[in-house]
Design goal:
With about 290 residues, the protein is mainly alpha-helical. The chain has a domain of about 140 residues: Tetratricopeptide repeat domain (Serine Threonine Protein Phosphatase 5, Tetratricopeptide repeat, Alpha Horseshoe). Helices cover about 65% and strands about 0% of the residues. It is built from 15 helices and two strands. The protein has a two-stranded antiparallel ribbon. Helix 6 packs across helix 7 and helix 12 crosses helix 14. The longest helix has 15 residues.
Length: about 290
């Protein structure tokens, strides 16, 4: 009766190149693994009288009630005023009973100092508890803390291990972070081809920093065959998400392109941007260019 993904306060702090800065992913739409927990939140919103029952069950120690109650306080739903401290209280109650996403959300709030005193070490501890239960977002977040040495001693090798666990569960920012580690050799031997592999996976899920990083690799021919057309198309795609660095590099490349080549690169951007067609379009262009 758990709701492992009922709320995501933070998915993962991505470790981006200096020119991109840090990414903080905000609250995500509900994606519950438990119809029961999701139904509790929905019912309380539709029938305020149900809130009293939910609160009673939470006080009796049911984590399946504690977690939705924390969500309601965190988001200010069902007529409750938004109260971060109350959210922390109930997330902690559920977390102490092993609720993985409550552990994750508690870690986020401790890391931010939201509704409680900021405590990086305790945040890392709760991320680890959730990560050990297989929560991909917690695995990625723990990897970031280990890489940065925040709340824990810096340990790039262990960070990579957690990024890999999350990446294997298709966590996009973990895939990006893993690709970056193969580029810079922190925690794992440098391997440009492996970096491209993981960056492509992240880019296909819409991580603009991964798209921009791939553009750089295609521009200079690192781990791939250099291609100004692909580099332009990828920079153009990342620029559409507001990446100023990518927009600048795109415009620099365009200065050296004839109109037919520029038209081809712009058409490729559209093909890469089509839903679920990123890797298909990229592979098709590479195959055509090499034929």
């Amino acid at each position: 009766m758990e709701a492992k993904k009922l709320v995501r306060v933070l998915k993962c702090v991505g470790l981006l190149p200096v020119w991109c800065g840090a990414v903080l992913v905000s609250a995500q739409p509900a994606d519950p693994s438990s119809a029961v927990a999701h139904a509790l939140v929905s019912r309380v919103e539709q029938d305020p009288a149900a809130l009293s029952a939910l609160r009673s069950y939470a006080k009796e120690g049911y984590r399946e009630a504690q977690f939705p109650l924390a969500v309601l306080y965190h988001e200010g739903r069902a007529g409750l005023r938004q109260d971060a401290a109350e959210a922390v209280y109930w997330f902690r109650k559920a977390a102490e009973q092993g609720h993985a996403v409550a552990q994750f959300n508690l870690a986020v709030m401790l890391q931010r100092g939201q509704g409680t005193n900021q405590d990086q070490a305790e945040a890392a501890s709760w991320y680890r508890k959730a990560a050990n239960q297989g929560d991909a977002a917690a695995q990625c977040a723990l990897g970031v803390m280990l890489l940065k040495g925040e709340g824990v001693a810096s340990h790039p090798t262990e960070a990579v291990a957690w990024f890999r666990k999350a990446a294997d569960q298709h966590h996009a920012l973990a895939q990006y972070n893993l690709g970056q580690r193969y580029l810079d050799g922190r925690g794992v031997p440098k391997n440009d081809q492996e970096a491209v592999w993981w960056l492509r996976k992240a880019a296909a899920q819409g991580v603009s920093a991964a798209v921009s990083q791939l553009a750089q690799l295609y521009e200079v021919g690192q781990g791939v065959t250099a291609s100004p057309v692909l580099a332009y198309a990828l920079y153009n795609l990342a620029a559409a998400s507001g990446d100023a660095f990518s927009a600048k590099r795109r415009d620099e490349l365009a200065k050296n392109m004839l109109r037919p080549t520029l038209d081809k690169a712009q058409a490729l951007t559209q093909a890469l941007a089509a839903p679920k067609q990123f890797n298909t379009a990229l592979d098709a262009y590479v195959k055509q260019a090499n034929s």
